Amino acid sequence: MTVPGGAKNFLSRPALPVVGIMLAIALAMRLLWLDRLVGIDGDEAWYGALGQQWMSGHFVYWATPTGNYPGPIHAALVGIEQLVMPREFVALRLPSVVASIGAIALAGLIAWRHAGPAAACWAVVLMAALPGNIIYARYGWDPSYSGLLLLGGVAVALEGWAVATVALFALAVLTHPTNIFGAPLLLLALLAGERRRGRALVSARSGAAGVALLLAGVAVLSTAVQATRAVTLGGALERLASPSQWFAYLFQYVRLLAGDPFFEQFAGKGYGALLSLVDVVGAAAVVGAAVAGVIAVRREGLSPRAAILLGTAAMVAAYGLVAGPAPLTAPTERYGFVLIAPSALALAFAVPRMSRWPEATALGTAGTALLAATALLYLVPLHDGARPMSWFLRTGTSEPHARVADRLLAERAKGPVRVVAEDWFLMWPLRYRLNGIDGVRIDLADASATGANFAFAYADSPLDRALAAQSGGRPPLLTTHDMAGRPISRLWRRP
User: Fold this and answer.
1) Could you tell me which residues come within 8 angstroms of residue 204 by beta carbon, excluding any fewer than 6 positions away?
2) Which of 134, 331, 338, 470 has its CB 3.0 to 4.6 Å from that of 178, i.e. a possible disulfide?
3) By the 8 A CB rule, do 227 and 178 touch?
4) Tens digits of residue pLDDT in 174-208
5) Cα distance from N-terminal residue to C-terminal residue, the chain
């Protein structure tokens, strides 16, 4: 395998220490306080409980309350982890960290293979430092695998391997339906791979037909998925003819790459007054990459570089046409996460030819800005408790659900434990943590939940106030607090 620039050239680059520093910081930010920052989401624990069922020999396939079915990868990996770290909350998130690191490595290898060491450096730094990639590496659910699966598809497509491309695309769509938007990128990458290998057009057409057939099949299946139900032909046609909507989509796409909706969702506030600067710098980079793609096609034909740049542009445009800017905002930013890894790879292919700064300076500036944004707008606010986050993601110096589960485990030594939890987000972390323990049962607090001797509620919620009124003046068994000392939840002993 011939690599542009060669390994010796890559290792001797002055920018390599900068890449190493950026990568080390980004990896540390993926792992720091992983088990408690943010607090364990009921969705994450639900995946864990599903994996526990599989590992115990009960192959059930639960649907979420909105009717969606999960992909198989995350639940299976969390289930396997139960063999070595049963019921640990950190096990819910480690697979996402591994997937994120794998995506960084894949992006670097693709860029090195097809565009040289400068592009490889940019691919590693961007994939490592983009805020959305860091935040979703810390969150255990299906969208976190989009980058790894789509970049895997790109890698095999650029080698001209049609069957592997179709298989990875199928797995990507099965993992999360938004990955269907990767079809234009994978198709152009496959055609470029066929061209590189000097194959006849018949082979290319075969690969394209396979992708097209799969695309049609999963498009039909995806109509049953909640995330796609709001998409209408009328909305797409309206967006197609509306320049204002395309401008709105461009800037919201830039904000997605810069991390603004992720900061809003998890820490309560995005860039604020700096958002205009983010818009200008990000839009310039995105438009520059699109122009670089057009130039690459004119000079190189359908080269791997041109395929990545134009394929990503087609993917982003298709998303804008079908879905518009709304899914790229909090709290639905997870539907736009599919765009981040391909965009990072495309920018890595374009920026080295656009930038006039020394490579080490440009990489250091971009990486530092992105990492600083994640530190200052995500990690620091969540750790010091300065901003309230979503009610079900609040956390403290120790993970709140873990404290409650440990207390209930101690109560189990005195007799059977039957708990009613206020909602899904309180119930599933306890079910995951206490799974398989005889004499423990966790249910939702509804009309059918009778005979419970404990109740778990959000602090100061209507249920919490009702439990306090029924307690006869007795204090709660346990109160959890966030970093700023504000109460999060309370565990009550029921009379």
Assistant:
1) 190, 191, 194, 195
2) 338
3) yes
4) 898 899 999 999 999 998 998 877 755 545 555 56
5) 72
